[in-house]
Amino acid sequence: MRAGSPGTTGVKTRPRPTRQTRRRRGGHFRPGSFVQRHAHALIASLGHLARRPWASCMTAAVLGVALALPTGLLVGVRNLEQLGVGWLAPDQAALFLVPGIEADKLDALHADLAADERVAVARIVTPDEALDEFRERSGLAEALAALETNPLPTVITLALAPGLEAPGALLAELEARDEVDSLQFDRLWAQRFDSLLAVARRVAGVTGAALLLAVLLSVGNTIRLDIAGRREEIEVTRLVGGSDAFIRQPFLYGGLWYGLGAGVLACGLVTVSVWLLQGPVGRLGAAYGADLALTGLSVRELLGLTGIGASVGWLGSRIAVARHLARIEPT
Fold first, then answer.
1. Residue 262 to residue 65: CA distance in whole angstroms
2. Which of 196, 203, 233, 244 has its CA 20 to 30 A from that of 119?
């Protein structure tokens, strides 16, 4: 039947755009349209979040707590490392001498230690000096005043020579001397402390990886629900020839905003937590005669944490969009 004859309308039906056609339409790069398209997607994603402020804030808050937990653990481990540097010097030893040691024997032992190349510094701490120091640090002046005799022994503190690889031989020699009652070597405590820090670092790393995966899955699930809730809008957009890139961009920006908000919230939580702990930690250090101060996140670390949150949010939305958007076809 020819066009224009009875029984025909004379109008050709426009074919429905296929996915390949939509991709070809969106594949030409035009600077103006590129910027406009992304600006439109950016504003549209913000508008979508603003229409659900409570749900959006709750999602970002959950993600922010998940990012703040491993970050707080790492900050705590770093502060413990700094504490160990000040308190647990690995090359310090203390010789507790026998009670009532004679002055000439004490001087001879001190001279031998000062002449030994394996010893950098040897200092005598008399019982009176040790008692005065303990009185100042403990706050038990009244109780100590009631003591009739000084129970503390004479001590020689040693700083071993830097780079001493085998201090065990020196320590064995010193412990075998008649003037020495007992010996305390801080390297053992430093090694134990380092082992505990290694465990804490591993726990923080594993926790961080698990929570980053949780953030990734949470963002992906949130974007999946957004896609399901806007299914009709997506179908209409595809019917009128909207490209996959045009449909995908608002969801990608939505995931980016979720991650960015989570990163900013995590920075705030960690910073506030460090600030709240400054006072108690300072008072604890003062009770032991030490000046303790916590260090929080630097500006670079704050920016890095925010970037990690934004990146994880974008990646989660990217995975969700690639998986679920392809299943929606106009009917």
1. 8
2. 196
- Contact by Cβ (8 Å): 92, 156: no
- Which residues, in sequence order, are bridge partners of residue 92? 159
Question: CA 120, CA 301: separation in Å to the nearest integer?
Answer: 39
Rg, C-alpha atoms of the chain: 35
Please give the model's pTM, rounded to 2 decimal places.
0.64
Tens digit of pLDDT at every position of the chain (331 positions): 444 444 444 444 445 555 454 444 444 444 446 666 667 666 766 767 777 788 888 988 999 999 999 999 999 999 888 776 656 555 778 899 988 888 899 999 999 998 988 888 889 988 888 878 777 776 666 666 767 777 788 899 888 887 776 777 888 888 888 889 988 886 667 777 878 888 999 999 999 999 999 999 998 888 888 888 777 777 777 777 766 667 777 888 888 889 999 999 999 999 999 999 998 888 887 776 677 788 999 999 999 999 999 999 999 988 888 887 766 666 6
**Residue ranges of domains in the chain:** 34-86+192-327, 92-163
Q: Phi/psi at 88 (nearest 5 deg)? A: -115, 70
Say what the alpha-carbon torsion angle 138, 142, 146, 147 is, to the nearest 10 degrees: 20
From residue 140, alpha-carbon distances to 129, 130, 254 in Å are 15, 14, 61
97 SS3 class: strand
β strands within the chain, DSSP E? 92-97, 119-125, 155-160, 180-185
d(CA 244, CA 18): 11
